[in-house]
């Protein structure tokens, strides 16, 4: 038995895959494919590890805020609420989902580089805990909305520390070329602090920064903390203001392929707490409450997507294309930025056990009408056959949340595994979900309502054949 991260086990002889102890083939049979499977225990464990790591480092007042952009469903929001986490939302839609889930509004942090007036108004009405102000337009927009309210609105300012991290690398830049936040080096951040302090309806609680995602090297976090504290010292000198809170964003990396070696949660937290303590002491500043916003490192490894193999195209000496029943529609990451994944294969019902097949180098591709719809460009699998099951690991974050309706493929179901019990937390979309909200050119053009052959055909797709 080979063990992978995220409680995934693979038996190469039988070619069977177990997710949290549950046979992937049974899940595929019960719920269809493509299917996103989340392991509840794994998600809860990561939430607890973040919180416990802060407590162990003596930062008892620290807040862990789950970044909903990684995966935001009603059930996921409820799980985060139960685990005592906050929730970072970036749109009216994520805010709506959180509120529909009954998530405590005071634990919501509202992000975004262009929040609309309507979104800000709804956030204020809901009583969200913090609004992270990203730019001067928004600062003025929010000030106007805050004017008529009783309590001042608690805000953080998003600043750009000039450190950018991606996986194994980071770069230091003087003036950061990014659409997010107020630049420290160029003086925007100081101007923003001064402007907020001049607005009595806004209560400046602290600063926020986020330096990237899928980060493996902790050095850029250290540097970020140092730069932000140096800035806080400058701000105190110029204005007398000191921060009560410092939100250091998310970004911790996860394992997509076996070579990946991200630092663990505990190490990241210890580095942040130590560095912040040291920097506060160096500048004689009060220690602000630390906040972090992990997304990927909470749900990423806890998710697996199951696919069924359909067409196989073998080009002798060139490549073998193994097409599955999903693709860039429910996982655009490989097409968007060349993201890498680990694929495992389980033999389909009644076919040769994977252990008796020869290994074959293949490309796992999707079924969107795009040559770039390649999920795994090159991997070795036991010679795939139609009807086999392919599991793509580490697909809990930024896959379903990025899913599109390209080519009008319905989005897959999401199930949450609680021990051996699977619960559907997002239903598989049906064809009629795809045209909900679409208006015919003329009312009589609603073909499905007509007793004609075209009408009968259209009705056959409600619900679609994949719902049978
Ligand atoms: C402001 C902010 N916070 C948190 C996150 C979550 O990052 P991750 O999922 O890498 O932990 C992101 C991701 O882009 C972000 O932009």
- Helix count from the secondary structure assignment: 13
CATH superfamily of the largest domain: Alanine racemase
Distance from N terminus to C terminus (CA atoms, Å) equals 34 Å
> Can you tell me the CATH topology of the largest domain?
TIM Barrel
Q: Which structural class do you get from the secondary structure elements?
A: alpha/beta
The average pLDDT score comes to 93
Ligands present: pyridoxal-5'-phosphate
- For the record, the CATH class of the largest domain is Alpha Beta
Helix content: 25-40%
Instruction: Flag low-confidence runs.
Output: 464-468
Instruction: Indicate the overall shape.
Output: globular
What's the total number of strands? 25
Summarize the model shown.
This protein has 468 residues and is α/β, with parallel strands linked by helices. The chain contains 13 helices and 25 strands.
């Amino acid at each position: 038995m080979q063990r992978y991260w995220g409680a995934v086990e693979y038996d190469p002889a039988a070619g069977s895959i177990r997710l949290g102890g549950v046979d992937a083939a049974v899940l595929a049979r019960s719920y269809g494919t493509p299917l996103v499977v989340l392991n509840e225990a794994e998600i809860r464990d990561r939430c607890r590890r973040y919180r416990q790591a802060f407590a162990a480092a003596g930062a008892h007042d620290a807040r862990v805020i789950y970044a909903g952009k990684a995966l935001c469903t009603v059930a996921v929001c409820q799980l985060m609420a139960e685990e005592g986490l906050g929730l970072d939302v970036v749109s009216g839609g994520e805010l709506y989902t959180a509120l529909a889930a009954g998530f405590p509004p005071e634990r919501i942090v509202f992000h975004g580089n262009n929040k609309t007036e309507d979104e800000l108004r709804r956030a204020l009405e809901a009583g969200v805990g913090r609004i992270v102000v990203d730019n001067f337009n928004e600062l003025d927009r929010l000030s106007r909305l805050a004017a008529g309210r009783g309590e001042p609105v608690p805000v953080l300012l998003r600043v750009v520390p000039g450190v950018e991290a991606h996986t194994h690398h980071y770069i230091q830049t003087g003036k950061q070329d990014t659409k997010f936040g107020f630049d420290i080096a160029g003086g925007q951040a100081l101007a923003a602090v001064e402007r907020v302090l001049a607005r009595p309806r806004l209560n400046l609680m602290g600063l926020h920064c986020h330096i990237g995602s899928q980060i493996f090297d902790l050095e850029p976090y250290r540097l970020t903390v140092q730069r932000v504290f140096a800035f806080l010292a400058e701000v105190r000198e110029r204005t007398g203001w000191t921060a009560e809170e410092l939100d250091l964003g998310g970004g911790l990396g996860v394992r997509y392929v076996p070579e990946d070696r991200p630092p663990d949660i505990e190490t990241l937290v210890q580095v942040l707490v130590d560095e912040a303590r040291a920097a506060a002491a160096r500048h004689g500043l009060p220690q602000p409450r630390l906040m972090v916003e992990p997304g990927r490192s909470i749900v990423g490894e806890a998710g697996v997507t199951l696919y069924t193999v359909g067409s196989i195209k073998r080009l002798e000496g060139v490549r073998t294309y193994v097409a599955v029943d999903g693709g860039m529609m429910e996982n655009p990451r490989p097409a968007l930025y060349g993201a890498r994944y680990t694929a495992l294969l389980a033999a389909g019902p009644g076919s040769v056990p994977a252990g008796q097949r020869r290994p074959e180098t293949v490309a796992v591709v999707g079924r969107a009408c795009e040559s770039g719809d390649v999920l795994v460009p090159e991997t070795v699998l036991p010679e795939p056959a139609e009807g086999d099951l392919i599991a793509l690991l580490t697909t809990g974050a930024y896959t379903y949340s990025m899913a599109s309706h390209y080519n009008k493929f319905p989005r897959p179901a999401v199930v949450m595994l609680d021990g051996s019990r699977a619960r559907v937390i997002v239903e598989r979309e049906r064809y009629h979900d795809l045209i909900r909200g679409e208006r015919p050119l003329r009312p009589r053009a609603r073909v499905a309502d007509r007793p004609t052959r075209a009408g009968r055909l259209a009705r056959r797709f409600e619900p679609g054949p994949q719902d049978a």
